[in-house]
Amino acid sequence: MAETGRKRRGRAFRWTRNVIVVLVLLFMVSLLIQFEYAYMPPMDKVLNPERINTDIAYDYWGRSITRQEADELLQTEEGARLLTPAHGAVEIDPEFLQLGREAFYKETFGNEIFSTDVIGFMDGPLTMWSFIRAIIANRGQGTDNLQVRVARDAIIGGREYSRGDMVNTGLDIVPGSLSVLGMKVRYSHGRIRGGITCAACHSAVDMESGKVVEGAPNLNLNIGKLIAFAPNSAGIFANAEIGSLDDLVSDASRTVTTSDGRTVALPDPELLEDAVDRVFMSWPPGSFDSTIDLVANPSQIPDSFTWQDHPYGWTGFAGAGPFMGLSVLNNNVHALNSDGISQAEASMDLFGFDKELTYAMVLQNSSRGRYRWNPESGVQPSEFFQRNNPTPPTMGFNEMVHTPSFPKGSLISPDGLFISKNGSLVWFENNAMSAFQNTLAPPPPPIEHVEELRSLGRDVFQTAGCGDCHSGPAYTNNRVLPAREVGASPSRARANANNWEAMIFPPTTWSWDTPVPVPLNARMLEVPLDLLDMDEVRMSYAQDERGEGGFKVKGLIGLWWSPPYLHDGSIAVGPDARTQVGIPGTFHAGVRPDPVNSLRALVDRELRKRLIEVTANSEELQLVKVTGTGHEHWVDEGAGYSRQEQDALIHYLLFLEFQEDR
Predict the structure, then answer these.
(1) Are 503 and 414 in contact, with CB atoms under 8 Å apart?
(2) Where are the transmembrane segments (predicted)?
(3) Per-10-residue mean pLDDT for the chain, 662 residues long?
(4) Which residues have a Cβ under 8 Å from the Cβ of 129 and sit 6 or more positions away?
(5) Residue 661 in 3-state DSSP?
(6) What confidence score (pLDDT) does residue 28 get?
């Protein structure tokens, strides 16, 4: 019997040992496995009409060169020399456009590390499993607003949430799919991470057709709330408004040593987190603050129907370089807005305090330990980051290279960085995305087109003076107008003022055939500025005489797909114009803005007056400088127009298409 017992114990020991060995092997294998996935809709799931501008063969510093023009140029020695990446030309062919589309839907440039490991996108009350359960519950039916349950009780920005509460995220799922549009999932080193691609903000599911509208803004994307629910939203404190840092200090013994050897008290992580959360929770759906001026002034996510809509950005700050500045705008998203460390080296110019304080504020409460800096470690936060930098030698989390001017910026890269992938070429994927976006045209509105009404609307458009500014192929004269002339909330117009101090002139870049990593002998090119009006460029950075800044004249293509209107997204009216007025009466009430009524509020002073009053009564909208003011060009009874003429103008605006230059 004793022998039998020893045999049983021996078998049990061997079984346990074998299980442990198998588990260890599985764990080791899991560390070696890498997997990533982001959904890209097949073309039969896309609602847009055929591509435009497919005859463009090259972009040469913002000039579009057709295939016929290219053929003629290539016959000459000088033309053949100019149309090379070594001299600034970007060749556009079907493969390049396909790469641009794939990057638009799938490329994060590595932002999943910052989103997951630093901010903790899935480590707060909205967990990874919260999202997985919500996706499974959708059962492939598709949605334009994924609702996710809160996993635990929490107070976010002063608002209480209980376990099981439903949160409207505004994230889209294409019918038949089991993944979020514009979200990339990556598994590596035993961890699941999530990152954001361009498509999360600049494409949307049309639930009526069940198809994707490429280039349409995601109108109800609740990105502010998604950021606020992360445990370290302070990782992008520069996109919020935090007031005096002294007011956020609770323990004077928690300090950081600055670059010049001074000792400075650190903001309390919880107080800092609460301060930024209150701002992020106040962003209206469909809005994002892409400027790092430490002022809460989010703007509406723009559409990506970009052809001839330059300069880009609401203030027109992006106008230099390839594709009339579109690559500058795209670069800004990944090199600045999804990496809170990328501008640390320019902290003194941008924020007025030392870079060590920026590194400390971003990293002191990181979600994952590898990137969490401890003030008691005795290591400066910049050195701590350098030891753990996932993308050396660039000081940032995302896949980037320094521009020739780094740490100073320039008009081709205000942040001094180019998003670029190892093993590729400088800005290759970024320029491809620009080329792709310039081929996008919106689908026609899903309403009846009445030619008589449209014809009358065209006449009203001209007699009311709309065409004075809204002319050209995309219905913009491509100007930047003074903020006081536009009359909109001026905060955003001044948002890029500090960037100017951190810039050098003339702007320079690496040639487009430069490999990544950038070699020491890389060719440097000076970026031509001959297509730019430098007075308007200065205005876009609030360097005009008054220091007030300006706003670009927005193109009018795709208005059906992009309500609400104006830069702050404040011109929003629901299907019932009596009760669903302003953001409080639409988004805050769970109602999507109606394009017809929202456009009416843009040109009807009585409806606008009610909208401004409702907006002014919202504390959270006042916090983020959303006002409902601006663009006071009326087409109403007070201006001598009938209701029929107003209706006709709106109908005309909704059916505008790209036109030949005139």
Answers:
(1) yes
(2) 20-40
(3) 56 59 50 80 97 96 97 96 97 98 97 96 95 94 98 97 98 96 89 94 97 98 98 97 95 94 96 98 97 95 98 97 98 89 91 96 96 96 96 93 93 95 97 98 96 97 97 97 94 92 89 97 96 96 95 98 97 98 98 98 98 98 97 97 98 94 47
(4) 151
(5) coil
(6) 46
**pLDDT given for residue 10 in this prediction:** 58
**How many separate helices (H) and strands (E) can be counted in the chain?**
23, 22
Q: Which of 324, 322, 329, 279 is nearest to 303 (CA)?
A: 329
Can you give the pLDDT at residue 9?
Answer: 57
pTM greater than 0.90? yes
Q: With H, G, I as helix, E, B as strand and everything else as coil, classify residue 194.
A: strand
DSSP assignment letter at 304: S
| C-alpha span between 119 and 234 (Å, rounded) | 8
Look up residue 325 and give its two tokens: 């500045």
Distance CA 358, CA 524 (A): 30
Distance CA 621, CA 279 (A): 10
Q: Considering only CA atoms, which of 87, 474, 123 is closest in space to residue 308? A: 474
How far is the C-alpha of 517 from the C-alpha of 394, rounded, in Å? 10
Between CA 329 and CA 597 the distance in angstroms is 30
Question: Is the Cβ–Cβ distance between 153 and 138 less than 8 Å?
Answer: no
DSSP 8-state secondary structure symbol assigned to residue 592:
P
Query: Hey, how many other C-beta atoms are within 10 angstroms of the C-beta on 249?
Result: 17
Please say whether the beta carbons of 437 and 333 come within 8 A. no
CA distance 1 to 147: 62
- pLDDT for the residue numbered 21: 58
> Which residue's structure tokens are 């020399």?
81
Q: What pLDDT score does 558 carry? A: 98
Residue 14 confidence (pLDDT): 60
Q: Which token pair is 4?
A: 């039998």
Residue 198, C-beta contacts closer than 8 angstroms, at least 6 positions apart: 103, 104, 105, 107, 182, 304, 330, 333, 433
Torsion angle in degrees (nearest 10) through CA of 299, 304, 308, 313: 20
Query: Radius of gyration of the chain from Cα atoms?
Result: 26
Question: Which whole-number Å values give the CA distances from 220 to 225, 242, 283, 563, in the listed order?
Answer: 11, 25, 11, 10
Nearest partner of 302 among 278, 325, 321, 322, judged by Cα? 325
Question: 398: which 2 tokens?
Answer: 């995302």
